[in-house]
Amino acid sequence: MGHITSKNAYKSLEERINWFTQGAPASETFYKILQVLYTEKEARVVSMLPVRPFTIKRAARIWNTSEAKAEKVLDHLCEKALLVDSEHNGVRKFVMPPPMAGFIEFALMRTRGDIDQKYLGELYYQYMNVEEDFVKDLFYATETKLGRVYVQEPVLTNAQMNHILDYERASHIVDESEYIGLGLCYCRHKAYHAGHPCEIDAPWDVCLTFGNVARSLAQHGQHARLISKEEAMDVLQRSYDANLVQIGENVRENPAFICNCCGCCCEALQAARRFAPVQPVETTNYIPEVKSHTCVGCGKCAKVCPVHAITIMEDPATHKKQAVVNKDLCLGCGVCARNCPTKAIHLEKRPVQIITPVNSTHRFVLQAIEKGTLQNLLFDNQAFASHRAMAQIFGSILKLPPVKQALASKQFKSIYLDKLLSSQVNKQRKQNN
């Protein structure tokens, strides 16, 4: 009977996790991962929580307990990085982080003695590097991507730096952040425990988190430590020197993370290699161009390219070797240009600019529409009860192109939303006239 109860607790948690726009496909491996990260009691209580941010008062009501007892449980879950907290106008709120970038990564962002890290690393490797369902769902289930690549600023010319947008620069993200957290690279930590250590021996202490996520991870479970902007810039420089790629949350405002990734361990870069040429993340707005008259075909660029987008080809007529870029696969990160000994590679603007969601809410709404799960955002108990949360979602929908608005309206099937969209169209018509 106890075994059945345990199964039910983890099954309920699995279903709650998959209420997110970003979920985690069920498998025996994922069930084992949940058993490592959550006790049976934790699985049961977390499965009851709303997806949208909630207060201590609301958790106490859901669990039918006192606010003091609820806060103690919530604090413990924050210590394990299974929840993150924030404070708005003196009111403390909590939220369940998604699987990625979220509770899966947080578990290995520091060395922990309370879990079997080797066993967990092996489970992670099986779930993400052997089984394909999670990675395909994470990176390819929606047109709007979870992550985006930052161009390596040192390779840009002064003229290019004058035109690059603020949100395209990792240094700007660092400079604008109130809190910056530094933790271990989950990918390399996982690969090490799974018996596949990093091929380039890249540094581990280069995982950056920002804002309330950084503060919560540092304050509660020391999954990250708060650092200065100067130290964060040093992290970027060390990552540039190690030929790592900067991948952050795919938003223009207040991204929650920037990972410094190697091609051998990072799930996103591994996916780019395995499922080429379909991109798992948004590229930069740059593309490398090779100057044929100065390229000597040394192959250094091909060696450091994290997604194997460069090959060295020989001209049959002249027998001259030269680097050739697969532009369908290229991330536009600039690692190749930084390593070219003859400066034969320079970055040019892509002919079509990449559109980046404004913020996390905008990204969630886009992904929910594309995945057909918009109703999960709208009808989650907390979101439905909160006018502010509903206003954020509707505001994001109203900024979408007409085709996406129509999809949103169809999924929501709401007279209220139809009226909002109709009102917006009429307003635009009047402005045009």
TrEMBL record:
It comes from the Bacteria. GO terms for molecular function: 4 iron, 4 sulfur cluster binding; metal ion binding. PROSITE patterns: 4FE4S_FER_1, 4FE4S_FER_2. Transmembrane segments: none annotated. InterPro entries: 4Fe4S_Fe-S-bd, 4Fe4S_Fe_S_CS, PSI_iron-sulfur_center, RLI1. Its cofactor is [4Fe-4S] cluster. Residues 286-315, 321-350 form the 4Fe-4S ferredoxin-type domain. Keywords: 4Fe-4S, Iron, Iron-sulfur, Metal-binding. CDD domains: MtMvhB_like (cd10549). The keyword Metal-binding applies. SUPFAM superfamilies: 4Fe-4S ferredoxins, alpha-helical ferredoxin. Ferredoxins are iron-sulfur proteins that transfer electrons in a wide variety of metabolic reactions. This is Ferredoxin. It comes from Candidatus Egerieimonas intestinavium.
